[in-house]
Amino acid sequence: MPIFSSKGYTFPEAIVVLLVFSVLAAVPFIHFSSAYDSAREDHFVQQLQADLVYSQHYAYTHHTPTRIDWKEDEGYYALIGNDRSEPLIQRDIPEGFFAPTASKLQFHTLSYTEKGNIKKAGTIALHGPSRSYRFIFQIGRGRLRVETSS
Question: Cα–Cα distance between 29 and 39 in angstroms, integer?
Fold first, then answer.
């Protein structure tokens, strides 16, 4: 008559099975975190582009100049209309984004006239955590283009 029953698993076998399930469960989270960071970066750039278009449309429809205040040191940017005392929009700049100072056109000097035209055409480089972006402003209304590079 056997003393031990063989109807269950031993403790080391159970630990090995739990370890395998833990590793398999952690793999999707590693993949999703990098996808989340990439989506967060893309969302910020698309939101910035939409805010710049909004600033241009606001200048045109309200017949007042608008500008962007890019406060990289304080971690936010704001769209300012000359007819208002408070900003039109104020948004946080995510960690890891910076605009270099070597380009001819800067975010802090970007402004639209009361007719919705950009005051100074040019290109602004914006570096994110994984990609670089070029905001290209051409003369005329509705002439904003964003290009992405690795």
Answer: 15
Output the six-digit token pair for 119.
């005051």
Q: How far apart are CA 5 and CA 55, in angstroms?
A: 76
- What is the tens place of the pLDDT at every residue in 20-30? 988 888 777 66
Q: Distance (Å, rounded) from C-alpha 137 to C-alpha 124?
A: 8
Alpha helices in the chain (DSSP H): 11-62
Q: Are 111 and 68 in contact (CB under 8 A)?
A: yes
Contact present, 135 and 142 (Cβ < 8 Å):
no
- Among 68, 64, 70, which Cα is nearest to 84's? 64
Give per-residue pLDDT as tens, 39-56.
888 899 999 999 999 999
